[in-house]
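$ ./design --mode recover --in tokens.txt
reading tokens...
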């Protein structure tokens, strides 16, 4: 790529990151919330009846530049604890309904509100846990140079079947390749992945094991 073509490409990417990405988020998320409202309402009722209140799971997660925000998801687990008051392992708290909601990605639908209010984007690295911030390498920490997303490059390349190092490498790849074409491609692949229910669980886990730091 010539220096002139590269400069034009970088200007195009910068313009998309600053303005176009937000426009795409709103153009998709707002009508998606409207269309998904009956599904969200039905899932919320089912959660209320089978799991109980609250219907929504809210948790503080690191967003753009690591700043905390409150992510919203549909509850899929109980709050059952052991004799000492500690939460039981995920596999013991995940309900049958929760398994279905995760398989169909319905538990993620409330995050469309996070997109509308601006704390998340449709596409970006998934928002993980606050305690992980101190465990990232400097390279891995770059995943917070963009807003977290409902879906992302790691999600369409294996999701929870990937190792942590693989997943975080896909996240930083996305940071360096943000563009309209990349985002549309990831959204299209995500739709196909939801239909196939691919990559929901890591081997031996109902979700993903805790990230303890890079193994590289």
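writing sequence...
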């Amino acid at each position: 790529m010539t220096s002139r073509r590269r400069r034009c490409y970088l200007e195009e990417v910068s313009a998309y990151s600053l303005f176009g990405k937000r426009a795409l988020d709103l153009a998709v998320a707002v009508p998606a919330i409207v269309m998904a409202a009956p599904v969200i309402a039905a899932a919320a009722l089912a959660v209320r009846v089978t799991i109980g209140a609250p219907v929504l799971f809210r948790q503080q997660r690191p967003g753009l530049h690591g700043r905390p925000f409150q992510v919203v998801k549909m509850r899929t687990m109980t709050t059952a604890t052991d004799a000492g008051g500690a939460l039981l392992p995920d596999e013991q708290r995940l309900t049958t309904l929760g398994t279905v909601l995760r398989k169909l990605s319905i538990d993620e639908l409330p995050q469309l509100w996070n997109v509308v209010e601006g704390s998340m984007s449709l596409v970006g690295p998934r928002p993980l846990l606050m305690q992980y911030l101190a465990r990232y390498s400097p390279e891995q920490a770059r995943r917070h140079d963009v807003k977290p997303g409902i879906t992302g490059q790691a999600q369409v390349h294996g999701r929870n079947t990937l190792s942590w190092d693989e997943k975080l490498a896909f996240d930083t790849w996305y940071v360096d390749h943000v563009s309209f074409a990349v985002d549309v491609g990831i959204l299209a692949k995500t739709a196909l992945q939801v239909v196939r229910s691919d990559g929901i669980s890591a081997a031996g886990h109902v979700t993903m094991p805790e990230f303890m730091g890079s193994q590289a």
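exit 0
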